[in-house]
Each structure stands twice: as C-alpha cells, then as structure tokens.
User: Fold this.
Amino acid sequence: MILKGINELKQFLEKSRNIVIIGHKNPDGDAIGSTLGLKHYLDKKGHNCTVLVPNEYPDFLHWLPGYETTFRFDWQNKQAQKAISNSDIIFLLDFNALHRVGEDMQNTLEKYPNDFVLIDHHQQPDDFTYMYSDIEICSTAQMVYQFIEMNSDLELIDATIATCLYTGIMTDTGSFRFRSTTSKTHRIIADLIDKGAENDRIHSNVYDSNSKNRLLLLGQALQNLKVLEQYKTAFITLTDEEKNRFEFQKGDSEGVVNYALSIMGIVFAAIFIEDKEQNIIKISFRSKGNFSVNQFARNHFEGGGHDNAAGGKSITSLDETIQKFVSLLPNYEEALQNSYVQ
Assistant:
C-alpha cells in the first residue's frame, strides 16, 4: 500500500475547494461508482465537485445518481476544459497513469498546474503529489469508502453515496465472487446496505437490463469460442462486422470474457474485439489462480491491470493478433498447468 500526503490532503480540504474527479477511458462500473460516490461525499463536505469521463460509458450505468451532472471530455470538451481550468485539485480514480484517459485528455492534464490525488488499486502506479494506492483492495469504490473512513466521516454516507459505492464494488468483484473479495469487503457491503444501498435493485439495474441485440451478440461471441485444452486456455473473438450486425453499443461486450473462463478446466481466458474506428484490437484477459494476466498483458500486448483481470491492445489485424496469442502459449504451458487446481 502507498499512502502519500494524506494528512496534508486532509488539511487542504478543510477549506471549500473546486474539485474535478476523473475516471479512466471507457469507464466501467467501478470507475463510475467510485467517482460519483466521491463526488457526493465531497459535495456534502462543502466542496464544488465535477466528475469528468474521457468518453461514453454503458447505458446500464446511466441510472446512477449524479450521471446527469457528469461531463464527457470527447463530447462536452468546453465544459470539461472549463472545470479543469477552474479547479484547485484533481482526483484521479481507478487508473494508475495519465495515459489511461486517452491522448487528448492526457495532453490537457499534463499541462495542469495544480496537484493530483490518486486513489487506485492497479499495479505500478505513476507518482503523484497525493496517493492512496493499494493493489490488494478489490475495487476503487471500496478504497473511496476507506478514504471516507480515514477522514472519520462514515456517518456522512447516505443512500446516494452507498448506492454508487455498492455498484462499483459489485461490478469489480464479479458480484463478490473474485478472490480479491475479502471479509472486509463484505463488512463494507453490509454497512452500505444498512446506509440505504438497495442491493436487489442495483443488481437488476446493472445485470438485468439487456437489449435483445446484446443477447444476440453474446450468442455470436459464444459461437466464436475456441478452447485450447493443452494450455487450459479459451478465447473469444468479435469482428467489427459482427458488432455492426447486432448494433453494438458501449458495454455490450462487458463480462463476455468470463464465459470463456467459466469452462471447466480453463484457467486463462481472453476476448479479442476488432475496433476499426481506433484501428486496434481491444483485448481483455482473465485468469484463475496464480497466472498473472497483468504481466502477460504488459509483456506482449501494451496493457496491464490486475493479476487475474487485465486488458491490452494490438495494432495488427485480428487474425495476426490471434496467431501471436496462440504462438505465445507454449512458453506459458507449465505455468498454466500449475496455476489452479479445482
């Protein structure tokens, strides 16, 4: 764990400040839940907070309280730039380096004259003036809860804050089933429910709001599934043509890689998604046991993340990317065989 300048930050926040809170590009449930949860908390402390996201996030997160006040950097650039210019400090949540917000937003943030606060749980963070980094914690939303606890302000958590933080923790733990979900996580979740988070409604809003096309896209993805038993590996592909056929929307491929990991005997799973607009192949990796997809992604696909959940990208074609991926597996055969015992 890295705790840097937290006492100084507490003193800085004793006065009312203009604060910008930023999540990573292609924000997920943890990025949105943690940023909105922190915003509502700091607003209650008398600050003026604005949440910025680099680009759009999935429809199944639009119901979260505070969604209507967020600004997209790619679409509402003037409002976002104004908020940054007028801010006294910027909080960076759920990412470990400025490049994770995308090149345009990164260029703006690199010129920012004031200080940054990092609250994040990803490995190998960059250095910032104020830091709360802990790779052992399951989600940034849980870290926001513990940041509030550090400030002796748990009594300020109301139903709105609890709902945001519950959503972030739930989505980043796969509904509390990942290994990073600890007994402390469950105690925090219990407190959030006590403070007003409606667990059944939150779960339904996130996971039971599929469009017909999203389910048809899932069916196509599962038809594309390939299993490499020798390496305890399975992978899924989605082409641009397939995405367009089912009117792909942001978030429609969320969680699909977990179907590959759910196959009995599989310890390493990946999904490769063609993105001709950005001219890249987006990749998500998942694993069971001690096989580090974070290291695999860093070594081979310009990515990173957590030991059991990471992302990456490729600038070659989908076929060439798959060929590279499969060609790497013999180098990891022993590690994959010994990664996890069911």
Observations:
- The CA atoms of residues 270 and 285 lie 4 Å apart.
